[in-house]
Amino acid sequence: MAVYTDVSAEQLAEFLSGYSLGELLSYKGIAEGVENSNYLVHTTSGYVLLTLFEKRVKASDLPFFIGLMEHLATRGLNCPLPVKNRSGEALGTLAGRPAVVVTFLEGMSMRRPTAAHCEALGEALAQLHNAGEGFSITRVNALSMPGWRPLYDMAGHERANTLRAGLGDTVAFELDHLEKEWPRNLPAGVIHADLFPDNVFFLGDKLSGLIDFYFACNDMLAYDVAICLNAWCFETDASFNVTKGRALLQGYQSVRPLSAAEQEALPILARGAALRFLLTRLVDWLNVPPGALVRPHDPLEYFRKLRHHQRATTARDYGLGA
Amino acid sequence: MAVYTDVSAEQLAEFLSGYSLGELLSYKGIAEGVENSNYLVHTTSGYVLLTLFEKRVKASDLPFFIGLMEHLATRGLNCPLPVKNRSGEALGTLAGRPAVVVTFLEGMSMRRPTAAHCEALGEALAQLHNAGEGFSITRVNALSMPGWRPLYDMAGHERANTLRAGLGDTVAFELDHLEKEWPRNLPAGVIHADLFPDNVFFLGDKLSGLIDFYFACNDMLAYDVAICLNAWCFETDASFNVTKGRALLQGYQSVRPLSAAEQEALPILARGAALRFLLTRLVDWLNVPPGALVRPHDPLEYFRKLRHHQRATTARDYGLGA
Fold first, then answer.
1. In this protein, which residues make up the domain named Aminoglycoside phosphotransferase (chains A, B) (predicted)?
2. What homologous superfamily is domain B115-318 in, according to CATH?
3. CA-nearest residue of chain A to B39?
4. pLDDT by residue (tens digit) across A189-218?
5. Cβ A182 vs Cβ A149: under 8 Å
6. In angstroms, what CA-CA distances link A315 with A232, A241, A262, A267?
7. What is the pLDDT of residues B227-242, one digit of tens each?
């Protein structure tokens, strides 16, 4: 939640003069997204969102992100559509940063999603997976299984144990286990990879849009389902709400049925997804720079979720077919 | 620039159900204001701004601030107008904070105001002073001359000298000088007291609105002019741009001519205004809490401005009648 790059009215007016968006009326830096700077911009033709990509986003990934949003939006998914400038380019430069203007989506993210929200999320996730078919650019998931051990080495075993006794040992055990058991050959395609409640807008119970495609990549589709089970179906006391899990999976399967192999793999994928967020949060937690403007997320939330997954044995434990 | 209090969609929808503003469509925490949390809220009836007052604002001051905006807006000043709820109240409670909804103003603050912007600012400041007449609530300016020595004691003489050699001694000298020479009996009324470029919106060269009345109080009107001379007419190298000063004063006097006594007092008022911002910035600078989300402003900017004012002798040095 931050605005890292300050843009002056003069700079922004100059930048927008390259677009067919009319005159600038106002703009506000908004507290959305942890990786980039975002401005809500009002012009005589309406509201758009301006994103400046900060250092953590690789410039070489931008054609994938921008192309993907175009691909998905033109296939009817409710997601931001990049706006092209008069030269036909969606990617520009502003204040020394790569910058993109996208359409503004109405709606609000839910702090405490209900089972109905989870069902709608499941449907939208499957629609995203179907809509991603035929997208020609690919992007490796740097945060999939092979990336976890390097992340853990970065965090450090001893430092992990200082955060909570036994945390380091649990992670070391999980890494060994997942490296052996991680599924291969499941249906793959474009995944969102970060579809937390923050990134899903609702108007009432109706899902109105998906945002923040800046972790999207190619990976197993069912891994995206497992990420969502982690992000949407636990209560604040770390208990898994199987009613929400069932709703999410029913919503998903109403659009894209999971294969038998995908269903069987759900528990191990959920374990891996929990470890992935535990590890990135751990690294962020142990490396907060002095004077940081962003508070890191609590890694222990995902430690508790991981413990839950270690006890699950079949997809029924997540509400599938139950 | 921060959002201190997080508001959920559920909380906000419940709060807005007390207003005649239609259905909530979206809301964004915006990076505006250093004392409060601000959200830009879109409902089926349009855009409004929601402010949650954080601890630094005294609850007992809120009727003054809200009443003043109503008073000024109904007298034609372009400033936010508090929106009343169905019970006729402008002040409500949200997420445990006093909260107010105000009308949204278009326009952008200028990073590098031109002389034309300074002239428009001068006019608007005088309009504000005239429009403030007849407002029945009063609020003492806690940051006027009698408040400066306590602020300096809070910063500490030795700590001030550590920031820059001689800074503490200069401040100590100024305090003695200003306590002796500070004008009394100049025309007084409601002043904005913080009308920096951040708080003034333009559409092109046309001033479209004044915002952030949360330092407003009763004090000498010419002191507000002196604050603006400090905030608008220095270049980044701390040189005073007399063309901008002249434009600001001409704009002001085209609406409300300064009396001979006010003109004569301008240099000492400008000195005091520089010291006031130097002192509050110094206190903030020396007291940044660990993990702070806001970077304090540089106190030395106002030290350099103060040095300029120490060399000025008459209002002609600020462009008056020149």
1. 27-258
2. Aminoglycoside phosphotransferase (APH), C-terminal lobe (3.90.1200.10)
3. A30
4. 999 999 999 999 999 889 999 999 999 999
5. no
6. 16, 14, 9, 6
7. 999 999 999 999 999 9
